[in-house]
Amino acid sequence: MDAALRSLLDWYASMGVDVPKVPPVRVSRPKRRALPDTRTTSSTPSKPAINTALPTRVAPALSKIRTLDTLKEAMISYDAGALSDTARQPVFARGNPEAKLMVIGEAPGREEDIQGKPFIGPAGQLLDRMLGAIALGEDDFYATNVINWRLPKNRNPTPDDLSICRPFLEKHIELAQPKALLLVGGISMTALTGMTGIMKNHGQWQDVTIAGTTYPAMSLYHPAFLLRRPELKKDAWRDLLSLREKLLSL
Description:
By secondary structure, the chain is of the alpha/beta class. The chain has one domain (64-249): Uracil-DNA glycosylase-like domain (Uracil-DNA Glycosylase, subunit E, 3-Layer(aba) Sandwich), CATH 3.40.470. Helices cover 38% and strands 12% of the residues. It is built from 10 helices and 6 strands, in the order H-H-H-E-E-H-H-E-H-E-H-H-E-E-H-H. It has helices spanning 3-14, 68-77, 82-85, 110-115, 122-132, 159-176, 186-193, 198-201, 223-228, 233-249; strands at 94-95, 101-105, 141-145, 180-184, 205-210, 213-220. Strand 5 (205-210) and strand 6 form a beta hairpin. The model is unreliable at 1-5 and 24-58 (pLDDT under 50).
């Protein structure tokens, strides 16, 4: 057990959480599955889960995109207007695209904007340690965000922001073909499930359907929120154990 994992388990124990010995999750590495033929659609993006506003900008046609690399190139070349004007670059993904688990966060911060990868700042480092506590390393998950550009002054995303990024997110999930989704933070939960209130809905499994495929999805407190509310770490630990059990059953 490495020092970071030992430190995190000690941290949970100090909060009064019973910390069992956690054996490693043995995740098989299946060969990349062939992608299904893309359905014939117009270039108009799908409706977002929270249908509170129409997009003011149409995303590029994504129906012919068959690989994650091509999706990343499309995102880089896309002009998202005011959403991307103050960002250095789009933040695409990190981790193993063939993993069972796809982690979907909220929006990039400063470090993510600089490096172009999600969850690499302080909150992301804590998330890595939390997942490490249930024996999930970086090869065992694939991470992205519902918003792909750093928002001006780190403001909360608007419904229009979510609508602009929604087609990219749906295509990202469709291409990655995970077995389960982990929705990190209330914004991610609302964007994918339509539910509001992370305090009452964290840890609950919901079905999320993307491009005709239904995925089990669980919401988790955002690590940045846990840093401000350490008394909720017990709840987060129980949610992580539920996630572990779900992955073992898939």
